[in-house]
Amino acid sequence: MFEPHTLPHVVSEPHVIVRGEGVRVWDSEGRSYIDAMSSMLCANLGYSESRLIEAAAQQMARLPFYASFGHRTADVPLALADDLAEIAPIPMGRTFFANSGAEANDSAFKIAWYYHACLGRTGRTKIISHENAYHGTTVAAGSATGIEPIHRGFGLPLPSFLKVPCPDPRTSEGLDDEQFTDYLIARLELLIEAEGADTIAAFIGEPILGAGGIIVPPPGYYGRVQDVLARHDILFIADEVITGFGRTGSMFATTEFGLSPDMITLAKGLSSAYLPISAVMVSDRVVEAIANGSNAVGAFGHGFTYSGHPVAAAVARETLAVLTERNIPQHVRDLAPVLAEGLGEYWNVKGVTDVRGHGFLRAVTFDPVAFGMEEGEIGATLAARAADNGVLVRAVGDSIGFAPPLISTRAELSEMLDRFAAAYRSVPVR
Ligand code: PMP
Protein backbone atom coordinates (compact mmCIF):
# COMPACT_ATOMS: atom_id res chain seq x y z
CA MET A 1 0.00 0.00 0.00
CA PHE A 2 1.07 3.54 -0.68
CA GLU A 3 1.79 5.58 2.42
CA PRO A 4 0.49 9.15 2.23
CA HIS A 5 3.17 11.68 2.98
CA THR A 6 3.71 15.40 2.86
CA LEU A 7 5.69 16.79 -0.01
CA PRO A 8 8.14 19.65 0.25
CA HIS A 9 5.82 21.81 -1.96
CA VAL A 10 5.23 24.15 0.94
CA VAL A 11 8.92 24.99 1.29
CA SER A 12 11.23 26.24 -1.42
CA GLU A 13 13.21 23.03 -1.74
CA PRO A 14 12.72 21.32 -5.10
CA HIS A 15 11.14 17.92 -5.23
CA VAL A 16 13.92 15.75 -6.62
CA ILE A 17 13.18 12.81 -8.89
CA VAL A 18 15.97 10.27 -9.09
CA ARG A 19 14.70 7.17 -10.86
CA GLY A 20 12.01 6.01 -13.28
CA GLU A 21 10.46 2.79 -14.47
CA GLY A 22 7.48 2.40 -16.78
CA VAL A 23 4.97 5.10 -15.87
CA ARG A 24 6.43 5.58 -12.39
CA VAL A 25 9.16 7.77 -10.90
CA TRP A 26 10.87 7.77 -7.50
CA ASP A 27 12.05 10.78 -5.53
CA SER A 28 15.17 11.29 -3.43
CA GLU A 29 13.26 10.14 -0.33
CA GLY A 30 12.43 6.82 -1.98
CA ARG A 31 8.73 7.64 -2.52
CA SER A 32 7.15 6.42 -5.74
CA TYR A 33 4.66 8.25 -7.96
CA ILE A 34 2.60 7.31 -10.94
CA ASP A 35 3.28 10.14 -13.40
CA ALA A 36 -0.02 11.36 -14.82
CA MET A 37 1.75 14.20 -16.69
CA SER A 38 4.58 12.33 -18.47
CA SER A 39 6.77 14.97 -16.78
CA MET A 40 6.18 17.98 -19.12
CA LEU A 41 3.77 16.05 -21.41
CA CYS A 42 6.75 14.45 -23.08
CA ALA A 43 7.99 11.16 -21.56
CA ASN A 44 5.45 9.45 -23.80
CA LEU A 45 7.01 5.98 -23.71
CA GLY A 46 7.54 6.10 -19.96
CA TYR A 47 10.86 6.05 -18.15
CA SER A 48 12.52 2.75 -19.04
CA GLU A 49 12.11 1.98 -22.74
CA SER A 50 15.19 -0.19 -23.31
CA ARG A 51 15.07 0.23 -27.10
CA LEU A 52 15.66 3.98 -26.75
CA ILE A 53 18.46 3.47 -24.25
CA GLU A 54 20.07 0.91 -26.55
CA ALA A 55 19.70 3.18 -29.63
CA ALA A 56 21.46 6.00 -27.77
CA ALA A 57 24.28 3.73 -26.55
CA GLN A 58 24.89 2.27 -30.02
CA GLN A 59 24.97 5.68 -31.70
CA MET A 60 27.26 7.05 -28.96
CA ALA A 61 29.69 4.24 -29.74
CA ARG A 62 29.43 4.59 -33.56
CA LEU A 63 29.43 8.39 -33.99
CA PRO A 64 28.64 10.49 -30.91
CA PHE A 65 28.45 13.71 -32.88
CA TYR A 66 28.82 15.35 -36.19
CA ALA A 67 27.23 18.69 -37.05
CA SER A 68 24.90 19.29 -39.98
CA PHE A 69 26.47 22.35 -41.54
CA GLY A 70 27.08 23.46 -45.10
CA HIS A 71 27.14 20.34 -47.23
CA ARG A 72 28.26 17.95 -44.51
CA THR A 73 26.04 16.00 -42.11
CA ALA A 74 25.80 12.72 -40.24
CA ASP A 75 23.74 9.87 -41.71
CA VAL A 76 21.23 9.58 -38.84
CA PRO A 77 19.48 12.97 -39.14
CA LEU A 78 19.05 12.31 -42.88
CA ALA A 79 17.46 8.95 -42.10
CA LEU A 80 15.24 10.58 -39.46
CA ALA A 81 14.12 13.21 -42.00
CA ASP A 82 13.18 10.34 -44.35
CA ASP A 83 11.29 8.57 -41.55
CA LEU A 84 9.38 11.76 -40.80
CA ALA A 85 8.62 12.40 -44.47
CA GLU A 86 7.08 8.93 -44.64
CA ILE A 87 4.58 9.63 -41.86
CA ALA A 88 4.15 13.38 -42.44
CA PRO A 89 0.51 14.45 -42.63
CA ILE A 90 1.36 17.12 -45.24
CA PRO A 91 3.11 16.99 -48.64
CA MET A 92 6.53 17.27 -47.15
CA GLY A 93 9.54 18.91 -48.70
CA ARG A 94 12.11 19.13 -45.94
CA THR A 95 12.66 18.84 -42.18
CA PHE A 96 14.66 21.34 -40.16
CA PHE A 97 16.04 20.01 -36.87
CA ALA A 98 16.55 21.92 -33.63
CA ASN A 99 16.76 21.05 -29.94
CA SER A 100 13.61 22.34 -28.27
CA GLY A 101 10.05 23.29 -29.03
CA ALA A 102 10.84 26.99 -28.77
CA GLU A 103 13.74 26.66 -31.20
CA ALA A 104 11.50 24.79 -33.62
CA ASN A 105 8.92 27.60 -33.45
CA ASP A 106 11.55 30.34 -33.82
CA SER A 107 12.87 28.42 -36.81
CA ALA A 108 9.38 28.15 -38.31
CA PHE A 109 8.94 31.93 -37.99
CA LYS A 110 12.28 32.51 -39.70
CA ILE A 111 11.36 30.05 -42.46
CA ALA A 112 8.08 31.97 -42.90
CA TRP A 113 9.92 35.30 -43.09
CA TYR A 114 12.48 33.89 -45.48
CA TYR A 115 9.75 32.28 -47.62
CA HIS A 116 8.00 35.63 -48.06
CA ALA A 117 11.35 37.34 -48.76
CA CYS A 118 11.98 34.73 -51.46
CA LEU A 119 8.67 35.74 -53.02
CA GLY A 120 9.63 39.41 -52.83
CA ARG A 121 7.13 40.15 -50.03
CA THR A 122 9.60 41.65 -47.58
CA GLY A 123 6.90 43.54 -45.68
CA ARG A 124 5.40 40.33 -44.31
CA THR A 125 6.91 40.20 -40.84
CA LYS A 126 4.07 39.87 -38.34
CA ILE A 127 3.11 36.63 -36.61
CA ILE A 128 -0.39 35.94 -35.26
CA SER A 129 -1.08 33.58 -32.37
CA HIS A 130 -3.70 33.02 -29.66
CA GLU A 131 -4.09 34.59 -26.28
CA ASN A 132 -3.27 31.78 -23.81
CA ALA A 133 -1.16 29.95 -26.41
CA TYR A 134 2.14 28.41 -25.36
CA HIS A 135 4.91 28.25 -27.93
CA GLY A 136 8.04 28.41 -25.76
CA THR A 137 10.06 31.07 -23.96
CA THR A 138 12.74 32.28 -26.39
CA VAL A 139 12.36 35.90 -27.49
CA ALA A 140 10.31 35.03 -30.60
CA ALA A 141 8.43 31.93 -29.37
CA GLY A 142 7.90 33.75 -26.06
CA SER A 143 6.37 36.66 -28.01
CA ALA A 144 3.99 34.24 -29.76
CA THR A 145 3.10 32.74 -26.38
CA GLY A 146 0.00 34.41 -24.99
CA ILE A 147 0.61 33.86 -21.30
CA GLU A 148 1.43 36.95 -19.28
CA PRO A 149 4.14 35.58 -16.92
CA ILE A 150 6.22 34.64 -19.99
CA HIS A 151 6.23 38.34 -21.04
CA ARG A 152 6.37 40.16 -17.72
CA GLY A 153 9.77 41.62 -16.89
CA PHE A 154 11.21 40.84 -20.33
CA GLY A 155 9.69 43.58 -22.48
CA LEU A 156 7.80 40.95 -24.46
CA PRO A 157 5.96 40.43 -26.70
CA LEU A 158 7.94 42.01 -29.51
CA PRO A 159 5.71 44.47 -31.41
CA SER A 160 5.33 42.33 -34.55
CA PHE A 161 3.59 39.52 -32.61
CA LEU A 162 -0.20 39.88 -32.70
CA LYS A 163 -2.91 38.01 -30.78
CA VAL A 164 -6.40 36.77 -31.51
CA PRO A 165 -8.80 35.51 -28.81
CA CYS A 166 -8.28 32.02 -27.45
CA PRO A 167 -10.75 29.51 -28.96
CA ASP A 168 -11.75 28.41 -25.46
CA PRO A 169 -15.36 27.16 -25.45
CA ARG A 170 -15.58 28.16 -21.78
CA THR A 171 -15.43 31.80 -22.90
CA SER A 172 -18.18 31.50 -25.52
CA GLU A 173 -20.68 33.38 -23.31
CA GLY A 174 -23.65 31.29 -24.33
CA LEU A 175 -22.85 31.11 -28.05
CA ASP A 176 -23.05 27.64 -29.59
CA ASP A 177 -19.94 26.18 -31.24
CA GLU A 178 -20.81 27.56 -34.65
CA GLN A 179 -21.65 31.05 -33.43
CA PHE A 180 -18.53 31.12 -31.26
CA THR A 181 -16.41 30.05 -34.24
CA ASP A 182 -18.08 32.77 -36.36
CA TYR A 183 -17.08 35.29 -33.71
CA LEU A 184 -13.47 34.05 -33.54
CA ILE A 185 -13.13 34.07 -37.31
CA ALA A 186 -14.58 37.59 -37.48
CA ARG A 187 -11.96 38.71 -34.95
CA LEU A 188 -9.18 37.14 -37.03
CA GLU A 189 -10.47 38.82 -40.19
CA LEU A 190 -10.75 42.18 -38.43
CA LEU A 191 -7.16 41.91 -37.23
CA ILE A 192 -5.89 41.03 -40.69
CA GLU A 193 -7.83 43.92 -42.18
CA ALA A 194 -6.59 46.38 -39.58
CA GLU A 195 -2.94 45.37 -39.90
CA GLY A 196 -2.99 44.70 -43.66
CA ALA A 197 -2.49 41.16 -44.96
CA ASP A 198 0.69 42.28 -46.70
CA THR A 199 2.32 42.82 -43.28
CA ILE A 200 1.55 39.34 -41.92
CA ALA A 201 3.85 36.33 -42.41
CA ALA A 202 2.24 33.50 -40.49
CA PHE A 203 -0.30 32.28 -37.96
CA ILE A 204 0.78 29.70 -35.36
CA GLY A 205 -1.66 27.58 -33.36
CA GLU A 206 -1.73 24.46 -31.20
CA PRO A 207 -4.42 22.00 -32.38
CA ILE A 208 -5.22 21.58 -28.68
CA LEU A 209 -3.83 24.37 -26.52
CA GLY A 210 -1.68 22.73 -23.87
CA ALA A 211 0.02 24.86 -21.23
CA GLY A 212 -2.74 27.48 -21.52
CA GLY A 213 -5.12 25.01 -19.87
CA ILE A 214 -5.70 22.02 -22.21
CA ILE A 215 -8.24 23.78 -24.39
CA VAL A 216 -9.98 21.96 -27.25
CA PRO A 217 -11.19 24.54 -29.82
CA PRO A 218 -14.73 24.16 -31.22
CA PRO A 219 -14.96 21.56 -34.01
CA GLY A 220 -14.03 23.00 -37.39
CA TYR A 221 -12.35 26.09 -35.91
CA TYR A 222 -8.90 25.52 -37.37
CA GLY A 223 -10.31 24.54 -40.77
CA ARG A 224 -11.96 27.94 -40.96
CA VAL A 225 -8.84 29.72 -39.71
CA GLN A 226 -6.93 27.97 -42.45
CA ASP A 227 -9.42 29.16 -45.11
CA VAL A 228 -8.98 32.77 -44.01
CA LEU A 229 -5.18 32.48 -43.99
CA ALA A 230 -5.12 30.87 -47.44
CA ARG A 231 -7.15 33.77 -48.85
CA HIS A 232 -4.52 36.20 -47.57
CA ASP A 233 -1.37 34.18 -48.37
CA ILE A 234 -0.57 33.90 -44.68
CA LEU A 235 1.28 30.71 -43.74
CA PHE A 236 -0.26 28.37 -41.18
CA ILE A 237 2.08 26.74 -38.64
CA ALA A 238 0.64 23.91 -36.54
CA ASP A 239 2.49 23.66 -33.23
CA GLU A 240 2.28 19.92 -32.53
CA VAL A 241 4.96 19.98 -29.84
CA ILE A 242 2.49 18.38 -27.40
CA THR A 243 -0.04 16.79 -29.76
CA GLY A 244 2.46 15.16 -32.13
CA PHE A 245 3.27 11.43 -31.97
CA GLY A 246 0.18 9.90 -30.49
CA ARG A 247 -1.03 12.01 -27.58
CA THR A 248 -4.41 12.70 -29.19
CA GLY A 249 -4.83 9.13 -30.46
CA SER A 250 -3.38 9.86 -33.91
CA MET A 251 0.22 10.21 -34.95
CA PHE A 252 -0.58 13.90 -35.64
CA ALA A 253 -3.54 16.01 -34.50
CA THR A 254 -3.25 17.72 -37.88
CA THR A 255 -4.65 14.56 -39.50
CA GLU A 256 -7.37 14.19 -36.91
CA PHE A 257 -8.57 17.77 -37.42
CA GLY A 258 -8.22 17.53 -41.22
CA LEU A 259 -5.68 20.35 -41.42
CA SER A 260 -3.04 21.08 -44.04
CA PRO A 261 -0.52 23.41 -42.42
CA ASP A 262 2.45 24.87 -44.26
CA MET A 263 4.71 23.86 -41.38
CA ILE A 264 4.39 21.57 -38.37
CA THR A 265 6.61 22.02 -35.33
CA LEU A 266 7.47 18.97 -33.23
CA ALA A 267 9.54 18.23 -30.10
CA LYS A 268 8.77 16.40 -26.83
CA GLY A 269 7.29 13.10 -28.11
CA LEU A 270 9.69 12.99 -31.07
CA SER A 271 12.26 11.36 -28.80
CA SER A 272 9.87 10.59 -25.95
CA ALA A 273 12.00 13.29 -24.25
CA TYR A 274 14.92 10.89 -23.76
CA LEU A 275 17.16 13.42 -25.53
CA PRO A 276 16.48 16.98 -26.67
CA ILE A 277 15.48 17.15 -30.33
CA SER A 278 12.82 19.10 -32.23
CA ALA A 279 11.83 19.52 -35.84
CA VAL A 280 10.00 21.73 -38.29
CA MET A 281 8.27 19.83 -41.08
CA VAL A 282 8.17 22.18 -44.06
CA SER A 283 5.65 21.60 -46.84
CA ASP A 284 6.57 21.27 -50.51
CA ARG A 285 5.02 24.62 -51.37
CA VAL A 286 7.29 26.50 -48.96
CA VAL A 287 10.39 24.52 -49.91
CA GLU A 288 9.80 25.15 -53.63
CA ALA A 289 9.39 28.90 -53.17
CA ILE A 290 12.58 28.98 -51.14
CA ALA A 291 14.46 26.88 -53.69
CA ASN A 292 13.39 29.26 -56.47
CA GLY A 293 13.93 32.51 -54.61
CA SER A 294 16.87 32.00 -52.29
CA ASN A 295 19.53 33.09 -54.80
CA ALA A 296 18.07 36.56 -54.81
CA VAL A 297 17.75 36.74 -51.00
CA GLY A 298 21.01 35.02 -49.98
CA ALA A 299 21.71 31.82 -48.07
CA PHE A 300 19.30 30.74 -45.28
CA GLY A 301 21.55 31.82 -42.40
CA HIS A 302 19.95 29.88 -39.61
CA GLY A 303 20.80 26.71 -37.69
CA PHE A 304 22.24 25.34 -34.49
CA THR A 305 25.42 23.39 -33.72
CA TYR A 306 23.27 20.57 -32.40
CA SER A 307 20.62 20.63 -35.19
CA GLY A 308 20.09 16.95 -35.99
CA HIS A 309 22.38 15.68 -33.22
CA PRO A 310 23.11 12.07 -34.24
CA VAL A 311 22.45 10.51 -30.82
CA ALA A 312 19.19 12.42 -30.34
CA ALA A 313 18.24 11.58 -33.94
CA ALA A 314 18.96 7.87 -33.33
CA VAL A 315 16.69 7.94 -30.28
CA ALA A 316 14.00 9.74 -32.30
CA ARG A 317 14.21 7.11 -35.07
CA GLU A 318 13.77 4.35 -32.50
CA THR A 319 10.89 6.26 -30.87
CA LEU A 320 9.10 6.39 -34.23
CA ALA A 321 9.76 2.67 -34.73
CA VAL A 322 8.30 1.82 -31.30
CA LEU A 323 5.27 4.09 -31.85
CA THR A 324 4.57 2.44 -35.19
CA GLU A 325 5.34 -1.20 -34.34
CA ARG A 326 3.26 -1.11 -31.15
CA ASN A 327 0.62 1.10 -32.76
CA ILE A 328 0.67 3.42 -29.77
CA PRO A 329 -1.82 5.92 -31.30
CA GLN A 330 -4.37 3.08 -31.50
CA HIS A 331 -3.60 2.15 -27.89
CA VAL A 332 -4.35 5.76 -26.91
CA ARG A 333 -7.61 5.67 -28.88
CA ASP A 334 -8.57 2.39 -27.18
CA LEU A 335 -7.88 3.60 -23.65
CA ALA A 336 -8.90 7.28 -23.94
CA PRO A 337 -12.45 6.34 -22.83
CA VAL A 338 -11.02 5.15 -19.49
CA LEU A 339 -9.76 8.67 -18.85
CA ALA A 340 -12.85 10.31 -20.38
CA GLU A 341 -15.22 8.27 -18.24
CA GLY A 342 -13.08 8.44 -15.09
CA LEU A 343 -12.69 12.21 -15.29
CA GLY A 344 -16.27 12.59 -16.56
CA GLU A 345 -17.33 11.53 -13.03
CA TYR A 346 -16.16 14.95 -11.85
CA TRP A 347 -19.18 16.54 -13.55
CA ASN A 348 -21.17 14.89 -10.74
CA VAL A 349 -19.18 16.13 -7.76
CA LYS A 350 -19.16 19.47 -6.01
CA GLY A 351 -16.74 22.25 -6.92
CA VAL A 352 -16.11 21.31 -10.56
CA THR A 353 -16.85 23.77 -13.38
CA ASP A 354 -15.42 21.96 -16.42
CA VAL A 355 -14.13 18.61 -17.66
CA ARG A 356 -12.56 18.49 -21.11
CA GLY A 357 -9.89 17.02 -23.33
CA HIS A 358 -9.10 14.54 -26.01
CA GLY A 359 -7.05 11.33 -26.16
CA PHE A 360 -4.49 11.28 -23.36
CA LEU A 361 -4.69 15.05 -22.88
CA ARG A 362 -7.36 16.11 -20.40
CA ALA A 363 -8.24 18.57 -17.66
CA VAL A 364 -10.72 19.22 -14.89
CA THR A 365 -11.36 22.76 -13.62
CA PHE A 366 -12.23 23.32 -9.98
CA ASP A 367 -14.05 26.29 -8.49
CA PRO A 368 -11.92 27.80 -5.70
CA VAL A 369 -14.99 29.42 -4.10
CA ALA A 370 -16.56 25.99 -3.51
CA PHE A 371 -13.48 25.09 -1.47
CA GLY A 372 -13.38 28.44 0.36
CA MET A 373 -10.16 29.34 -1.42
CA GLU A 374 -8.63 32.14 -3.48
CA GLU A 375 -8.15 31.85 -7.24
CA GLY A 376 -5.32 29.45 -8.09
CA GLU A 377 -5.29 27.95 -4.62
CA ILE A 378 -7.44 24.90 -5.23
CA GLY A 379 -5.35 23.87 -8.27
CA ALA A 380 -2.13 24.08 -6.30
CA THR A 381 -3.69 22.34 -3.30
CA LEU A 382 -5.04 19.45 -5.37
CA ALA A 383 -1.70 19.01 -7.18
CA ALA A 384 0.09 18.83 -3.83
CA ARG A 385 -2.50 16.44 -2.37
CA ALA A 386 -2.27 14.32 -5.51
CA ALA A 387 1.47 14.00 -4.99
CA ASP A 388 0.80 13.11 -1.35
CA ASN A 389 -1.38 10.32 -2.72
CA GLY A 390 1.28 9.09 -5.12
CA VAL A 391 0.20 10.66 -8.43
CA LEU A 392 1.88 13.58 -10.20
CA VAL A 393 -0.54 15.95 -11.99
CA ARG A 394 -0.11 19.53 -13.22
CA ALA A 395 -2.09 22.53 -11.99
CA VAL A 396 -2.74 25.30 -14.52
CA GLY A 397 -4.53 27.85 -12.37
CA ASP A 398 -7.45 25.91 -10.93
CA SER A 399 -7.40 23.30 -13.68
CA ILE A 400 -5.70 19.97 -13.13
CA GLY A 401 -4.11 18.46 -16.23
CA PHE A 402 -3.77 14.77 -17.02
CA ALA A 403 -1.39 13.68 -19.80
CA PRO A 404 -0.19 10.21 -18.84
CA PRO A 405 2.52 8.32 -20.71
CA LEU A 406 1.03 6.84 -23.87
CA ILE A 407 2.06 3.34 -22.78
CA SER A 408 -0.16 3.50 -19.68
CA THR A 409 -2.26 0.37 -19.23
CA ARG A 410 -5.92 0.32 -18.25
CA ALA A 411 -4.91 -0.65 -14.69
CA GLU A 412 -2.37 2.18 -14.49
CA LEU A 413 -4.91 4.74 -15.71
CA SER A 414 -7.40 3.49 -13.12
CA GLU A 415 -4.75 3.72 -10.43
CA MET A 416 -4.01 7.35 -11.48
CA LEU A 417 -7.71 8.19 -11.30
CA ASP A 418 -8.14 6.48 -7.91
CA ARG A 419 -5.14 8.25 -6.43
CA PHE A 420 -6.38 11.60 -7.70
CA ALA A 421 -9.89 10.87 -6.39
CA ALA A 422 -8.37 10.29 -2.95
CA ALA A 423 -6.63 13.67 -3.25
CA TYR A 424 -9.93 15.35 -4.19
CA ARG A 425 -11.74 13.70 -1.27
CA SER A 426 -9.07 14.94 1.13
CA VAL A 427 -10.00 18.60 0.48
CA PRO A 428 -13.30 19.63 2.09
CA VAL A 429 -15.91 21.19 -0.21
CA ARG A 430 -18.24 23.74 1.30
N1 PMP B 1 4.97 24.48 -28.05
C1 PMP B 1 4.14 23.85 -27.22
C2 PMP B 1 2.74 23.56 -27.67
C3 PMP B 1 4.58 23.48 -25.94
O1 PMP B 1 3.74 22.88 -25.10
C4 PMP B 1 5.91 23.75 -25.56
C5 PMP B 1 6.46 23.32 -24.21
N2 PMP B 1 5.59 23.07 -23.22
C6 PMP B 1 6.73 24.43 -26.47
C7 PMP B 1 6.24 24.76 -27.71
C8 PMP B 1 8.13 24.79 -26.12
O2 PMP B 1 8.93 23.67 -26.02
P1 PMP B 1 10.33 23.76 -25.25
O3 PMP B 1 10.02 23.89 -23.80
O4 PMP B 1 11.00 22.46 -25.61
O5 PMP B 1 11.03 24.94 -25.79
TrEMBL record:
It comes from Streptomyces cadmiisoli. One of its GO terms (biological process) is gamma-aminobutyric acid metabolic process. InterPro entries: Aminotrans_3, Aminotrans_3_PPA_site, PyrdxlP-dep_Trfase, PyrdxlP-dep_Trfase_major, PyrdxlP-dep_Trfase_small. This is Aspartate aminotransferase family protein. CDD domains: OAT_like. Keywords: Aminotransferase, Pyridoxal phosphate, Transferase. PANTHER family: ADENOSYLMETHIONINE-8-AMINO-7-OXONONANOATE AMINOTRANSFERASE. Belongs to the class-III pyridoxal-phosphate-dependent aminotransferase family. One of its GO terms (molecular function) is adenosylmethionine-8-amino-7-oxononanoate transaminase activity.
